[in-house]
Amino acid sequence: MINLLQLLDPQALLRVPYKRDFTPDTELRKQITRYFSEFLGQRPKAIEPLLPDVMPSFGKLRIEDGDSIRSASASGISSSAERDMSFVRVYEWQTQISYGQLERVVDCLLPKDKTLGRVSGKRRLLAIIHPCKNTRGKDASLERTGYTELANILVTDLQSVVAVVGRVKTRGKWLIVDRTGGLIHPQFVQDEEADTDSL
User: Fold this and answer.
1) 107 φ, ψ (degrees, to nearest 5)
2) What are the pLDDT digits (tens) for 102-116?
3) How far apart are CA 127 and CA 125, in angstroms?
4) What are phi and psi of 167, to 5 degrees?
5) DSSP-based three-state secondary structure for 173
6) CA atoms 191, 74, 132, 173: torsion sign
7) How confident is the model over 116-152, as pLDDT tens digits?
8) What residues are paired with 140 via a beta bridge?
9) In the chain, where do the E strands start and end?
10) What φ, ψ does residue 42 adopt, rounded to 5°?
């Protein structure tokens, strides 16, 4: 059994179900490549061959001092289920709020290669999310925010997931129920090695 404490993210504790042999399909692998390409400022063709074929997957996580989230892959429930704890509040690159359904968390152990720069030889925990269309930039804790469908998957760092949110279906659309009250703000933690490298 894997020691889950070894995979403790500064923000989240990963929990079972754990799928050791998860292999991303072609579309997901393309989105993971896109994430690293944008993050590192490298061309996708340079990144894709460096990604591992197998990326273990987790179905649940607990945010430090906060919510428990069960991904859609762990829930086995449809998008119309009454108690669905897979919808989350996410901060994207420019600290822009968006909402979406957490599909799963993958553990991507990158090889040592100069192309990968500061993440060479490091483990990255990635959140695989189906964004709610038309919610980007809106804060459902402060204004009415809804959606009618989910967009194609988005891959982002697990630290971007900040809270679980609820949703209520009314008049053919889903309204987001965000109980954070606008009080959650992202904290991006710099790697300890990055601190020592700059000395």
Assistant:
1) -100, 110
2) 999 999 999 999 999
3) 7
4) -155, 150
5) strand
6) negative
7) 998 999 999 999 999 999 887 788 888 889 999 999 9
8) none
9) 12-19, 57-63, 68-70, 87-91, 97-109, 123-131, 146-147, 154-157, 161-164, 166-170, 173-177
10) -115, 160
Phi-psi region of 137 (alpha: psi -120 to 50; beta: other; left: phi over 0): left
Token look-up 């504790």 returns 13
Q: How far apart are CA 62 and CA 147, in angstroms?
A: 26
- Residues 1-14 have a mean pLDDT of 54
Q: List Cα–Cα distances, 21 to 51, 58, 106, 123, in angstroms.
A: 15, 11, 11, 16
Residues, the chain, total?
A: 199
Chain centroid to CA 119: how far? 17
Look up tokens 């894997």; give the residue.
2
Going by C-alpha positions, the residue among 122, 104, 113 that lies closest to residue 49 is 113
